[in-house]
Amino acid sequence: MNEKFYQLKITLTDSQPAIWRQFVVPASISLDRLHDVIQIVMGWQDSHLHEFRIGKLRLTEMPESSSDDKEEYLYRLVDLIKQKGRAFTYLYDFGDNWEHEIVLENSNYPENDLPLPFYCLDGARSCPLEDTGGVYGYENFIAILNDPSHEEYKETLQWTNQLLGFPENEHFDPEQFYPDNINAFLALYYRWSRDRYHHLWE
Fold first, then answer.
1. Residue of 70 and 66 predicted with greater confidence
2. Residue 134 placed within a domain
3. For residues 53 and 41, what is the distance between their CA atoms, to the nearest angstrom?
4. In this structure, what are the phi and psi dihedrals at residue 30, rounded to the nearest 5 degrees?
5. Arithmetic mean of pLDDT over the chain
6. pLDDT: is 193 or 124 the higher one?
7. Residue 202 lies in a domain
8. What is the pLDDT, as a whole number, of residue 66?
9. Are 107 and 121 contained in the same domain?
10. Residue 106: which of 122, 93, 90 has the closest Cα?
């Protein structure tokens, strides 16, 4: 039986202009692996807890015994999402509350068009930096970086450059989007996890 592939679009909720990615994964991907792919395509650092919300299900990596959450690795995407247009939620960092909407755009993406089982097709804008306070905190962060007269400009710029390893004359650009870089990381991830997916390409 040939593997099916899903084309998904993930959008950071309330981001203006929208921060989004369009990408393809095997329909049979487990949700723990989908989390890995989302972290790569968005540009997050996997430094915080996360969960998926699909209908009434809350799926996470380490559910508490006292909660109704389920372990995400036990579920595969194709068993939960089948219909084109169906949407579900991915929440990253319960403090900053980075909420994403994921929509199934194509439930049968052509395998012949894929160089690898995980592939980023398109997107827009940089991923926010971690620990900037959620969408609205990030917008304030960008406003400070765009205003050299702001009293917090120098401190914010210094923190940003230290975090990213930038020299003083280089600055974070919130409009940058590099799909080739994302796909290079996805290729490395595929090599790391190919014991699980090698049968797709035999």
1. 70
2. yes
3. 19
4. -75, 155
5. 92
6. 124
7. no
8. 65
9. yes
10. 122
The pLDDT of residue 2: 75
Cβ atoms within 10 Å of 61's Cβ, excluding its own? 14
The number of folded domains in the chain is 2
Burial 101-119 (b: 16+ CB within 10 A, else e): ebbbeebebeeeebebbbb
Between helix 31-42 and helix 179-197 the angle, nearest 10°, is 160
Residue 172 · residue 126 · CB < 8 Å: yes
Question: For residue 194, what pLDDT is reported?
Answer: 67
| Pair (171, 185) in one structural domain | no
Any idea what the Cα angle at residue 47 is, between residues 77 and 59, rounded to 5°? 30
pLDDT band at 62, cuts 50/70/90? confident
The mean pLDDT of 39-63, rounded to a whole number, is 95
> What is the Cα–Cα distance from 125 to 16, expressed in whole angstroms?
10
Contact between 23 and 5 under an 8 Å Cβ cutoff? The reply is: no
- Structural domain containing residue 65: 5-125+177-197
Between helix 134-145 and helix 153-164 the angle, nearest 10°, is 110
Give the predicted TM-score (pTM) of the model.
0.92
CA 107, CA 71: separation in Å to the nearest integer?
A: 24
Q: Which position has the token pair 């004359």? A: 169
Same domain, 23 and 106: yes
CATH number where 104 lies: 3.10.290.30
**pLDDT digit string, tens, across residues 178-198:** 999 999 999 999 988 765 544
pLDDT of residue 199: 42
